[in-house]
Write a structure and sequence with these properties.
heterodimer, A: 238 residues, B: 364 residues, 10 helices, 24% helix, globular, MucB/RseB_N (chain B), signal (chain B), MucB/RseB_C_sf (chain B)
Chain lengths: 238, 364
């Protein structure tokens, strides 16, 4: 995707594109599959930042929207039909852009119910403290799909290089506390696409389901672990 | 009374057959008295003793004991009372769960049928998800040769105060009922804290908070309307004794107090090679998953993952000459999971090179 198209996409998302720009983007999306992917990733990133989970990443709506815009009656301009741009009010184009993003985000809700990660399809983002972590990690993965971000792998971390020394008893605890400051949190999948993150989140959920079932076994609070599961596996031992 | 309750007789009894038979004797008397009249139990000065003694591998836990127990006067007493109440009370309730994903309302029900519990939770907001769990009262560990494995509540109470400080903190009104607030604070930074509000009448937890190491609330579960809570008339069965599966791997380090739980789970997504072991200190739980890394299967990326409030540390490494994926998952501080996942030991190797691993003592 060239820089211009990327800027147009970005402007469109921020409701700052005019109608001409919108048409150009839709046209370019038509011919280039990866541009369309970028568009979807941008929106996915934004909705994840806004913690919107009704995201459908699989559906390509651009064709339908293009048709919708084609059907849209041109705004009544006085005489100067040739000078389209001046005739279009800003609010008009913004409304179209808003409609576009609205449709992409809420989309068709195929995700819920049929899909495993539906209740907790938070991507498996490494995050220090909740929202901030997610907000930082998503654009990195979404925007620079091509650029590789090198992060420390687990074994490179200081604490992993000498497990035997710190092992056993309380001495090990001190080691952890000391080294857990910064390199603890890393995006395990910085190079992966959002789609890959979805797959990771779903896979992670399958482990969490088993963990939740196990945790509900011991007496005490059964409800809280139970509700962390996806609800798709039958829980409990008969 | 407090000290007595914190260390239920049961644990001391396991080692000496004389005491064991004494306990059985007490139980027989108790059962006989229930047969005569329930009120007689209430007059019994040793009412709380009955809690730890009222279960039996064959029959299960006699729920009617709860009716006779006087209100506990210690935080440990309240907590043990609530552990049993969770199993014994039949109720319907509305609740709300507040997590990082927002607040969602729930309809809950807990029933006991033929001594087996059935718990159903249904989300009332969003997609109609239903959680169902059937189970019996768990055991404190895997089957052991020559000793009886205690019921889970008894096992939890044995070591709980080694790792948590329990404190009663006055009364509050929750869901229109009188509740006792119970603060459970970890004694180290290796586990999360809890705050419970227990119903004065039934000891059922009306509200629960999970707090991280800096005291921030991670998850809230609160009953908003408790309907028809009644004591199950009869026994709730104990889980059968389960044999520990032979694993070629074992955790080299766990936070103090975490003991293996007799749980085996399956998933329709995972193949059978994904081994799962659960460890718990009574309040916090963590899971270890170990599986061979094969080319075709789905794998988690190495590193730290978070889903909701649960963390998962993932490590890929050659263990015993085979590439393996090790996942430590739980609602614990993430650095604890990192340390666990790094120190999983491959048993055959350990046998061969005992000296190398002498620094790593595994917790029992």
């Amino acid at each position: 995707m060239n820089q211009q198209a990327r800027e147009s996409l970005s402007a469109l998302m921020d409701d700052e594109a005019d109608e001409l720009e919108l048409r150009r983007v839709l046209k370019s999306l038509d011919g280039h599959g990866d541009d369309a992917d970028a568009w979807r990733r941008y929106h996915l990133a934004r909705s994840l930042m806004q913690r919107d989970r009704d995201v459908d990443v699989s559906t390509d709506l651009s064709a339908g929207i293009m048709a919708k815009i084609a059907d849209e009656p041109l705004p009544a301009t006085d005489k100067s039909l040739t000078r389209k741009r001046s005739g279009l009010s800003f609010t008009g184009s913004a409304a179209i852009a808003a409609a576009v993003s609205l449709m992409v985000i809420t989309g068709v809700q195929v995700y819920h119910g049929s899909d495993s990660g539906s209740t907790a399809t938070q991507p498996s983002l490494a995050g220090g403290s909740g929202v901030q972590g997610a907000a930082q990690a998503v654009p990195a993965a979404a925007g620079n799909a091509g650029a590789s971000v090198s992060r420390p792998s687990l074994v490179d971390l200081p604490m992993f290089q000498s497990p035997a020394q710190g092992g056993g008893g309380n001495s090990g605890i001190m080691t952890v506390g000391a080294s857990a400051e910064m390199p603890m949190f890393m995006a395990p999948s910085a190079r992966q696409s959002q789609r890959g993150d979805q797959a990771q989140a779903q896979l992670l959920q399958s482990y969490l389901d088993r963990h939740a079932e196990g945790a509900a076994y011991r007496s005490g609070d059964a409800w809280m672990p139970l509700l962390r599961a996806s609800g798709l596996e039958t829980l409990g031992q008969r | 009374m407090t000290a007595y309750f914190r260390h239920p007789l049961r644990t001391a009894q396991q080692r000496t057959p004389l005491h064991t038979s004494l306990r059985r004797h007490v139980l027989l008397i108790a059962v006989a008295m229930f047969g005569l009249s329930g009120a007689a139990v209430a007059d019994q000065p040793s009412g709380q003793e009955a809690l730890a003694a009222a279960w039996d591998s064959e029959a299960g836990f006699d729920c009617s004991v709860l009716d006779g127990v006087a209100a506990p006067d210690s935080p440990e007493g309240w907590f043990e009372f609530s552990l049993w109440a969770n199993h014994c009370y039949v109720f319907h309730a509305r609740a709300v769960r507040i997590s990082s994903e927002g607040a969602r309302t729930l309809a809950l029900s807990h029933e006991v049928k033929d001594g087996v519990e059935r718990e159903v939770a249904q989300f009332l907001d969003g997609p109609p998800l239903v959680f169902e769990r059937r189970g019996r009262i768990g055991r404190g560990g895997w089957a052991e040769e020559g000793s009886e494995v205690p019921a889970s509540p008894t096992a939890i109470m044995t070591h709980l105060s080694d790792h948590y400080r329990l404190q009663l903190d006055g009364s509050e009104r929750i869901a229109g009922r009188n509740a006792v607030r119970l603060d459970i604070e970890p004694l180290d930074s290796l586990r999360y804290g809890h705050r419970l509000w227990l119903d004065r009448a039934t000891a059922l937890p009306l509200k629960q908070l999970l707090l991280d190491d800096s005291g921030r609330v991670l998850e809230t579960f609160q009953i908003t309307d408790l309907e028809h809570a009644s004591l199950h008339d009869g026994h709730v069965r104990l889980d059968e004794l389960r044999q520990a599966p032979p694993d070629p791997w074992a955790p080299g380090w766990l936070p103090p107090g975490f003991a293996p739980q007799p749980v085996s789970t399956r998933s329709s997504v995972h193949d059978d090679a994904v081994g799962h072991r659960l460890f718990s200190d009574g309040l916090s739980s963590l899971s270890l998953f170990v599986e061979p890394l094969d080319a075709d299967g789905q794998v988690l990326s190495p590193g730290m993952h978070r889903l909701g409030i649960s963390y998962a540390a993932v490590r890929h490494d050659d263990i015993g000459g085979q590439p393996m994926q090790i996942v430590a998952m739980g609602e614990l501080p993430p650095q604890v999971l990192l340390q666990i996942v790094e120190q999983v030991e491959w048993q055959p190797e350990r046998v061969a090179a005992d000296v190398d691993d002498s620094a790593q003592e595994s917790t029992p």
